[in-house]
Write a structure and sequence with these properties.
Elements (H helix, E strand, L loop, with lengths): L2 E5 L4 H12 L3 E6 L2 H11 L3 E5 L5 H15 L4 E4 L12 H28 L2 E9 L10 H22 L4 E9 L19 H13 L4 E4 L3 H10 L2 H4 L3
Parallel strand pairs: 1-2, 1-4, 2-3, 4-5, 5-6, 6-7
Helix pairs in contact: 1-6, 4-5
Bound molecules: NADP nicotinamide-adenine-dinucleotide phosphate.
The site of NADP nicotinamide-adenine-dinucleotide phosphate has 31 residues, from helix 1 and strand 5.
Length: 239
């Protein structure tokens, strides 16, 4: 039985991971801004669920809430940093752009830093970052989103290197997801290879259990990742 904190557990991928992990007998600590959704999920899961309302951009409060959940669950084995937002727009207002960067990059980094520090002091654990194929591809209508996921990816590489230099056994796993049907993508156009959230979460759990450094969900996105790495930038810029 693992003790797992999941940020962004009120909908989509985070909620599905919470349900599937809890159904396997694990304890789940749920976080998100929408309290009523957290209450509903707690009701659905039962005694193995713990929750706190949190806007992850409030770092002081986040530390308090992570610590309270860890105390209530009796420890922490895995931190799944899934909270995120997306926006596809040619020229978003700066306020929206900066909020996205705050959530997807800065709050992610804070959660990763917190969890690594905890695991270093307690012998080990696993940090999971919810990244995207977008980490590999810049896009003029999603510059902040693609850059935020690229940040997540590189930050985790640095922490993987740190993990090799400490006594504790710490795994850092980055999930590069393709299109998954959730609230974030419900109005998106031009999607392909779309997965339902149940199938995607089940694949994620299998990859996490194998303690992979990086993996793609669904698996076929690995092919596009390979293409993305081979195609020169001047060609991407014309697509
Ligand atoms: N769906 C896809 O195709 C896809 C593909 C690649 C990667 N991803 C990534 O997967 C993650 C989950 O997205 P999703 O598709 O499941 O979308 P979603 O259903 O919209 O879920 C987003 C989650 O993030 C939480 N969140 C957003 N801002 C927050 C904040 N300031 N503080 C705390 N929680 C916050 C939301 O909770 P509250 O609103 O209750 O706070 C919600 O639980 C994101 O990081 C996204 O970038 C998704």
């Amino acid at each position: 039985m693992k003790k797992i904190i999941i940020t962004g557990a009120t909908s989509g991928i985070g909620k599905e991971l919470a349900l599937q992990y809890a159904s396997k007998g694990n304890k789940v600590g749920l976080l998100g801004r929408r309290t009523e959704r957290l209450e509903e999920l707690k009701e659905e899961i039962g005694e193995r669920a713990y929750f706190r309302t949190l806007d992850v951009t409030d770092h002081e409060l986040a530390e308090k809430m992570y610590t309270e959940l860890i105390d209530e669950m009796g420890g922490l084995d895995m931190m799944i940093l899934n909270a995120g937002m997306g926006r596809i727009q040619m020229m978003p207002p700066w306020r929206a752009e900066s909020k996205l960067i705050e959530v997807n990059a800065l709050a992610f980094a804070h959660g990763c830093h917190f969890a690594f520090d905890y695991f270093k002091k307690h012998g080990g654990g696993q940090v999971v970052g919810m990244s995207s194929m977008a980490a590999l591809l810049a896009h003029h209508r999603a510059a902040a989103y693609t850059a935020s996921k690229h940040f997540l990816s590189n930050y985790m590489i640095g922490f993987r290197q740190k993990a090799k230099r400490v006594e504790a056994d710490i795994t850092l796993t980055e999930i590069r997801a393709g299109y998954i049907l959730t609230e974030m993508t419900e109005r998106a156009k031009g999607m392909f290879w779309v997965s339902d959230v149940g199938k995607a979460a089940a694949q994620m759990i299998r990859g996490i259990e194998k303690k992979k450094n990086i993996f793609y969900v669904t698996k076929r996105w690995r092919l596009l990742a390979w293409v993305a790495k081979c195609v020169p930038e001047f060609i991407w810029n014309r697509i």
